[in-house]
Amino acid sequence: MNVRRSAAVLAATVAIGTATPAVAASPSPSLPSGLYGSSDPTYDGVWRQSLALIALYRVHAEPAAAAVDWLAGQQCESGAFPAFRANPAKACDAKLMVDTNSTAAAAQALSAVGGHGTAVTKAVTWLKSVQNKDGGWGYTPGGASDANSTSVVIGALMTQHTPVSTIRNGAKSPYDALLKLSLPCADGGAFAYQPDKKGKLTANADATAAAVVGALGQGMVSVKAGDKKNAACTDAARPTPEDAAANGSAYLAKAVAKDGHLTSSLPGSENQPDYGNTADAVVALAAQGGTAAATGPLRWLERNSAKWAEQNGPAAYAQLILAAEAGGADPSDFGGTDLVKQLIATGPAPVTASQDDSGTSVWWMVGAGLAAGAGIGFLLSSRNKRKQP
Fold first, then answer.
1. For 348-374, what is each residue's pLDDT tens digit?
2. For residue 304, how many other CB atoms are within 10 A of its CB?
3. How would you class 210 by CB atoms within 10 Å of its CB: exposed for 0-12, middle for 13-18, buried for 19 or more?
4. Are the beta carbons of 98 and 107 closer than 8 angstroms?
5. CA torsion sign, 253 to 263 to 106 to 25?
6. Single pTM value for the model
7. Cα 62 from Cα 39, distance rounded (Å)
8. How far is CA 148 from CA 6, 144, 239, 379, 384, in A?
9. What is the spatial distance between Cα 326 and Cα 216, in angstroms, rounded to a whole number?
10. pLDDT digits (tens, 9 = 90+) for 187-203
11. Helices (DSSP H) in 233-356: which residue ranges?
12. Are 264 and 281 in contact (CB under 8 A)?
């Protein structure tokens, strides 16, 4: 799960958790009232809102209606979403850049919350219309296919209950695009983000985490623990998406084996733990090999991610919730932190739910418990990622 500060700068700072301002207790008055987080949404508003709604859905928590309405209001008439639309009342024009990542994430989020079937279908229809000839997607329409974008779009395609393998541009499906980006075992069995200018593939841990989930035919809403062992990398004469996912998972398992986390660096800085991509790796490892396969990095996140999440806000809390949920941990007690409570506190207060005949609703109890909650603060997970060893 994984682009977004002009695509690279924001993605890098949030994924690694450095040089990011602390998140205020409540959104700034100058920001939309339905938006999660108080930092500038220009490059990640739709992405972080989508992750927040998906994470709440995964833990059966109901978001405020204002949060859902804000996301739905970001959609253009074409069906596409930009990273952020400052004036939803103004029609989208050619100057407003829309992208596949925001669109795919929003489609998954609106599908999860329900009641937005037409918007979801329009988003997926637009995504299909900009599918590349190799079967994949780049961050921008027509851009070279990359593993992260193709994988997040696969999650959106699944909202239509149509086999992903049948979504083709000519003869090529999204799985064909991912297979072209998978490396042989001699190079670790990982996935590359994109080929370089000479066509060479370089292993990228974040792209691998995204592609393992995508190659397994899963998305952020639907990802579940698998039952396949994370065996050693094995080359096949005619590799399948499942083969590539298994090899990518083996690569990730090896990458986190020593320290319990993935490592990355920003230009001019020392190598450091990469919290966001480690959370994505937990999801990928669990999707392939079950909760036991993700135990090491999940426990590392429980011990070490609290400060990073507080600094980076809703997208970070959402990533940790998704990792905890996929890895079999309790998001409400993740290393002593209630991730769900912290995420909710970064956005609009949930509306008190009505009581039904069986008594007080679960959401009413959650809302009441959060009334005095302290405020807090991806990717962002990725996209247009830096290369990772």
1. 988 654 434 443 334 333 343 333 333
2. 15
3. buried
4. no
5. positive
6. 0.85
7. 23
8. 16, 12, 20, 11, 8
9. 14
10. 999 999 999 999 999 99
11. 241-257, 275-289, 295-304, 306-312, 314-327, 339-344
12. no
